[in-house]
Amino acid sequence: MMRCRTPTRAVTLAATLAATIGLGLLGAVPGRAAETIATGMIGAPNAVGWPWYIGIDKGFFADAGISLDVVYVPTASGLVQQLSAGSLDIVADVGVVEPIHAVEKGAPVALLRIMGQVSAYEMLAKPGINSVKELKGKTICIGGLIDINRVYLERIMSADGLHDGDYDITVVGNTAGRFAALKSGAADATMLAPPVNFFAEEAGFRTIGMMIDYTKDLPFGATDVSRAFAAAHRDALLRFMGALDKGYAWFNDDKNRDEAIDILAKEMQTTDRESVSKSHDYMRKIGFFPNDGTVSKKRLEALMDEMIAIGDTDGKVAIEKLVIAGVTKVGE
Length: 332
Hints:
This protein is of the alpha/beta class. It has 14 helices and twelve strands. The two termini are 37 Å apart.
């Protein structure tokens, strides 16, 4: 399968890790060469991957003897397909719906941790549309017909009295692409995550709903792993998990706010630091990034109930089939 790599990112990352190794900073695993993990993310650098960029920038992964080979793939379904095929070892920022679909079909993948415990999406619309109810007869752009976007869309639309057939759906698999559809006029409204939602507001589009107000009981996103990789590289996986946890904890420490903003702005290659600042404060306010990433049985069950209700799946998948025993933290 084609790997949609971002060349400048790969070169920069490789150079950084090479320099780090050359300086002998892998003190946590003396005498061990860094183990490379093929890592997939959606589209382009974004706020959902913030703890990963922190882990790279602050050396948490390097200190754990881990080298991340980051590959950007246009859609969440594409990420999970590459994970299932063995082209990727770990994927960073997919909705929880995708691994459920994959496991239901027998794919050798599993949930590793929750990376977004609530939805960061806002519904933004063209000027002149002032509420969700006014989307009747309009075109709405979402990430996929069988992904977390569709589950969220059903929640927000039904809460305002709208149902399938009352509006049209078009699909673009990543946030930047959905914003482009909104700007071009191909869509009347769409769901956007930080900082792109703030870019859209600055461009004159109107926020007409915050998804967290409709979906507090549903998980947003997950980090997933290939079962083959997990079985063959358990030690590396545990070291990776420890480094990633450090990235989450570092983000959630208020004293790191300004540096965190600088890290994401550099990663996104944007000069709009104000929007990145708003993104940081917004994600801290809603408690988006959980420090320990525990997979909640109750919240997974609620999500699968929603998937069944909209015909997205025929039945529930047993929790033990969705996780890696002894690695994934599972709670009630």
